[in-house]
Amino acid sequence: MRFTSAILAAAAAGSALAQRPSNTSICDYYTTALLKENNATNQYTLLTLVVNTAVIGNYTQPNVGVSVPGILNPNGTYNGTKVNLVPYFNGGLASTNDNGKAVARNFLDGGGAAPLMKNMPADDMKSNQYFLMTHLYEFFGSLLGCSQYGMKGFPEYSGDASMYKVHKYMVLDPYQMGYFIEQVALSAASFGVAESDIMAVGQALGSLFNYRCEPEKTVIKAQGPQWQSICTDQSCPLADNATCSAYEMVPQPAVANATLAMGEGRNASMSGSATPTMSGSMTGTASPSASASFNAAAIVAPGLTGVAAAIVAAFAL
Ligand code: HEM
Ligand SMILES: *[C@@H]1O[C@H](CO)[C@@H](O)[C@H](O)[C@H]1NC(C)=O
Ligand SMILES: *[C@@H]1O[C@H](CO)[C@@H](O)[C@H](O)[C@H]1NC(C)=O
Ligand SMILES: *[C@@H]1O[C@H](CO)[C@@H](O)[C@H](O)[C@H]1NC(C)=O
Ligand SMILES: *[C@@H]1O[C@H](CO)[C@@H](O)[C@H](O)[C@H]1NC(C)=O
Ligand SMILES: *[C@@H]1O[C@H](CO)[C@@H](O)[C@H](O)[C@H]1NC(C)=O
Ligand SMILES: *[C@@H]1O[C@H](CO)[C@@H](O)[C@H](O)[C@H]1NC(C)=O
Ligand SMILES: *[C@@H]1O[C@H](CO)[C@@H](O)[C@H](O)[C@H]1NC(C)=O
Ligand SMILES: *[C@@H]1O[C@H](CO)[C@@H](O)[C@H](O)[C@H]1NC(C)=O
């Protein structure tokens, strides 16, 4: 791993452990802590490390004892419910929004996990994977306040402005959302990001994307207010000032080329049906409204409080 010595040196120096000053963004602070020089290249590298790790699970050395299963892990669980997001990424489901039509598209066409483990977005710069991964680096770079965002070495976000439109035909539910956000949180934790910072990011992701019928909100400054709900299944909690007329009710994505095992994929609320018809998962009893408000604390897995201690233990040797 190319960044091993930089991360090791920074962590050993304890710089990642000090309290982040309020006038320094999360991006800038951890770029300095982990990669020393706070420039555009290193900020982009930080985002690459965190996003790649969230997507495929922890792969860098050394690790601080935080295991990240990864968004592409077919055996995910969130709050005891099975979650498998793979069919949304590999073309297994007709869940991509192609100009208002639900189509199946493979987003792992740039070499899959292998280039990600080399801290790259994809092997092939024309692949769907390349666009998805680089868009995620850019998007999260803006969200985390990178000071070099949009400057030479850190391209500004060039993907779709509305997160609702992008994710519309996925009809994602709170468990799928919770799993995704938890992987981002675990990835950050695996690099020694402080719990308070992880909580802040989790809270932002929750309030921006994890409610249905959200009024327009600005996420990327240059793109202005946009419809942003990513959680659009009927079981998602309703936003404050809900604007449901802006959100079309669409059915669960059709299976295009996937063999969904028990508990994989789901087929909950079809057009407002209140009774979820879960395909084999153990959640039949979960009352959607019971989990109505997103709890930022839920994104922090048990034991994460010990992250700082784990870093000290790992690097004091
Ligand atoms: C807080 C939660 C999430 C955020 C902030 C987020 C953000 C994004 C962004 C910025 C893109 C790139 C859009 C573009 O290139 O135009 C994207 C694409 C995508 N996301 Fe999410 N996402 C979230 C949750 C999820 C979840 C839970 C899934 C579950 C399967 C998912 C699946 C995808 C897929 C398949 C794409 C590619 C879609 C396309 O390019 O057409 N996302 N997401
Ligand atoms: C943040 O504030 C401290 C003093 O409170 C100052 O030394 C530092 O330069 C400031 N950093 C930024 C990025 O403005
Ligand atoms: C940022 O700093 C690194 C060294 O840490 C250097 O290799 C890289 O060229 C610098 N990038 C810019 C844009 O100055
Ligand atoms: C991921 O992290 C866990 C916990 O530190 C560790 O046991 C595991 O070996 C790591 N996996 C990889 C592929 O590095
Ligand atoms: C997921 O579980 C299956 C069945 O137990 C196993 O064969 C597979 O290796 C697991 N995959 C991962 C990435 O853990
Ligand atoms: C809801 O709308 C009212 C009136 O426009 C506004 O005062 C309030 O701040 C909004 N609440 C949220 C959470 O956006
Ligand atoms: C959901 O149900 C529809 C209609 O029965 C079906 O076409 C589709 O393949 C199902 N999707 C999943 C993910 O099970
Ligand atoms: C379906 O998936 C299999 C295995 O991933 C692949 O070999 C095949 O080409 C796919 N078929 C279509 C029509 O996409
Ligand atoms: C997951 O569990 C947490 C903590 O009990 C709870 O606050 C949250 O609402 C649950 N999320 C879902 C989707 O069930």
TrEMBL record:
- Statement: the UniProt record of this protein carries the keyword Signal: yes
Task: List the GO molecular function terms.
Answer: heme binding; oxygen binding
Answer yes or no on keyword Signal: yes
Record keywords, A-Z: Signal
Classification via InterPro entries = Globin/Proto
User: Residue span of the signal peptide, if any?
Assistant: 1-18
**What's the name of the protein?**
Uncharacterized protein
